[in-house]
Each structure stands twice: as structure tokens, then as C-alpha cells.
Amino acid sequence: MPFSNVHIAQAFRQLLLVVVAMACLSATALADNARKPAVAAKKVFVPSALPSASGAVSASVKAVAGKTKALAKANQKVASGTDTTGRDNRILFARASGDVFTTRIDLMTDEPLIEIGVYNMLGRRVMDIYKGASGRGMHEFTQSLSELPDGIYICVLQGDNFRKAEKFYFRR
Questions:
Q1: Is residue 35 one of the residues assigned to a domain?
Q2: Cβ burial, residue 61 (10 Å; 0-12/13-18/19+)
Q3: Confidence class of residue 107 from pLDDT cuts 50, 70 and 90?
Q4: Which end of the chain is more exposed for a tag (fewer CB within 10 A), N or C?
């Protein structure tokens, strides 16, 4: 069965739509890699040989370009929501030896309120280590673990603008 002009026109429209969609998606991917918002193409070549197809293709191109712009805005929001304060507060170590838990933290700025807690693997807070203000520098905290069963725990250091976690094992 030979192909008619209508079949060829439909196949050409689909091919053109796929090419435009791929171009828009690759522009978004390149923009993500460069950490810049994607810029949608303003002019799209639509062949004049298919005047009846130009309206449908144009609408499809606009829809794809709109989705690309929305994706670029979403990626820009995610990138702008990251911590840009330059803080590098960290947990240097969290260890349990015998029945004593020791953690050492390093704060880059004075913090009005920090919390250090121990959580089990279900996410429940099982012990408070410290809650209060703390100055810049290294600090060491110790706590008895006589009430905790053996297992895997997470030490969480949390302040106003940061949250750090360190996993540790406790075994008697």
C-alpha cells in the first residue's frame, strides 16, 4: 500500500515535533550543567510546504517551550535555595566507647542555639547531648550511653541555618 501525502505530512509533523522537543530538552540539560537557566529558542523554523501543519506544529512547539521555561525556573529555584552562607560547620567525629558517647564539633561562627541529639535508625530522638548557645571553634561533648541498647545511631548537630549528621555504632 503506497503512502499518501497525508501520511507523509503526519510523519513529518511527528518528526518535527520530536526534533524540537529534543532540542529544547538538550538546551535545558546544557543549562543545568552550566547552572544557568535555560533559554528557549524564540524562532522555530516551520517549513512552508505544509501550511496546514504549521498551526499544529506551532502550538506543539509553544507547549514544549513553555514546559522548558517552567523546568528552567524550577531548576533555578532549587539552585537558589542552596546554602550560600559559606558556613562549614561540621561534626568532626561521633564515637561510642564503653558506655560513653563522645562527639567533637567544629563551628565556623558563633551560634545562638545549637542542638546535638542522638537518633535511632527509626528517626526517633533517643538522647539529648547538648542544647544551647555555642561559640566559634572546636567543642567536645560527652554523655553516658548506659540506657541505650547496642545498635546503630545517628548524631545530629543542628543550628539555625544548618544540619549535619554522623552515623556511629554502639556495642558493649
A1: yes
A2: buried
A3: very high
A4: N
User: 73 and 95 in one domain?
Assistant: no
151 vs 34, which has greater pLDDT?
Answer: 151
Whole domain around residue 116: which residue ranges? Answer: 90-170
CA separation for the pair 46, 54 (Å, rounded)? 6
pTM score of the predicted model: 0.49
Q: Are residues 69 and 96 in the same domain?
A: no
DSSP letter assigned to residue 43: -
| Mean pLDDT score across all residues of the chain | 74
Reported residue count of the chain is: 172
Q: Are residues 22 and 42 in the same domain?
A: yes
Residue 67's Cβ-count burial label (10 Å; 0-12, 13-18, 19+) is middle
Total domain count, the chain: 2
